[in-house]
Structure formats: C-alpha cells, structure tokens
Amino acid sequence: MSDAAGSKQELRVELSLPATAEWIALARTTGAAIASRWSFSYDEIADLRLAIDELCLALIRDGRGERLDLVYRLDAGSIEVTGKMRAGTAGASEELTEADHALSERGLSERILDALVDGHGSDADDSHVRAWLRKDRSTATT
Amino acid sequence: MEELFEIAESSENGIPVLSIRGEIDVSTAPELRDRLLSVAQSGNTTAVVDLREVTFLDSTALGVLVSALKRFRSVEGDLRLVVTGRSIVKVLEITGLVDVFMIFDTLEKAVQE
Q: I need a labelling partner for A78 at 20 to 30 A (CA). Which of A8, A93, A121, A125 fits?
C-alpha cells in the first residue's frame, strides 16, 4: 500500500473476524495501521482506535453471528468503517433512568463515539445489524 | 490476540492498590472486575486503581470501574484513580467520569487519607 495521502485515490480494506471479544483488538489495530499510512495524526489515530473498538462492541452486543465483517474505506480526507453482523433476537431492553444510562456501558460508548468521530450511526433489519463511523483527517498534508 | 495486560496488587497506607499495565478492553476487563470484587469482598471500603501504565481503555473498562465505584460508595468508601496518560484522561473527560471519580496524578496523593 503506497502512501496516498492527499490524493484522490480510494482504498478499501475488508476484514472478517470471529465475533468474539479477543478479536476486537485486531479490528482496531487494523484501523490504526491504515490511518497511520493515510497520514492521520497521532491523536486522530488514537481516537479512531477507540471508536472502532466501540463500534465492534456495539455490534457484538446487538448481533448474534459467528462473524463480524468490517469494511474500511478511505478517500483523500477521511476513513469510514462499516461493520455488519447477523441480527440477534431482540431481548427485553433494560429500563434505565437517564443518569443510570449515562453511566452504563452503552451510554458511555455512545458518548465516546459522539466525541471522537465526525459521524456515526447504526441500523438493523431482520437479518443483520450494521454500524458505521467516519473520521475526517484534519492534518494538512503536502 | 494476546495483548499485554497485568494487574499488580499492593497496599499503601493500608489502602489496596491495583496497578494495571496494558490495554483494558472487553477481553481483559473481566479480570479487573474480578480483582476489584475480590478487594471489596475482603472487607476493604476504599481502593486505588493506578492507570498510569494503561495504554488503552474502552467503555467496558469504564463500566467495570463505575460498577466498582458504586459498590465501594455503597459502604461509605470510595474508588480512587491515578491517571496521567493523555489518552486515558481524554476518555474520562469525554464521558464525564472526571466528575464522578476522585482522580489523582500521583499514587502518593491517592492514598492519603
């Protein structure tokens, strides 16, 4: 992979992992390695590592599949990560007060994503749950 | 994937201290939860978690720390954190947990009564 920072070149990397906790580290490390080659700053890479971790956690929490499929898409100024898993059976959601939600893992995860990336979202249908995030590169490159 | 993760337990001023090294994520947080639970079940009402050697921390790790904090505070105790790493401070700031935990920049300050 050549350094394409600043060019119009696009890059797409796909990663399919066992949907278990110990493999999430590979998902975030892959994202960090790609962003590093794309001239993201140290702080942006650290943000992206954590955001990808949170994206994977959300999918594993809400999905029920054996595989977690990730696609990393890069263009000149941003990286977008999309994850997909087979949908699980919706369980009864726990009723939490606003204060309790803020301190729950899900609430903490939402705050982290809100703060660290430039866009994120999720959706689901009968067969799959999906989540995505986008991190823009703010560092000027030559 | 095996990541470096170690928990060393010590005591300072009679307060148990868990010093953690490495990454705390969904695969390593359960060990931290078990160690904190063990500390609490041993009759301690206050403990210190030293995060100065932690290089990564996610929402599962924060969830473990918040649960432990609630447990210690339910017995009029506390869970104190020692944090210096910029990335760890940032996570605590963006989640608002800097206003929830007692956070110190040295272990000496954290174990003062």
A: A125
| CA B60/CA B107 separation, integer angstroms | 24
Would you list which residues of chain B are within 8 Å, Cβ to Cβ, of chain A? 1, 3, 23, 25-27, 56, 58-60, 62-63, 66, 87, 91, 94-97, 100
| Shortest CA distance from A47: residue in chain B | B87
Q: Is-above-0.80 flag for pTM? A: yes
Out of 3.40.980.10, 3.90.650.10, 3.30.750.24, 3.40.50.720, select the CATH number for domain B5-108: 3.30.750.24
Q: Please, are residues B54 and B20 in contact by the beta-carbon 8 Å criterion? A: yes
- Cβ distance B58 to A23 less than 8 Å, yes or no, reads no
CB contact under 8 A, A50 and B58: yes
Look up residue A45 and give its amino acid. I
Rounded to a whole number of angstroms, the distance from the CA of B97 to the nearest CA of chain A is 8
ipTM tops 0.85? yes
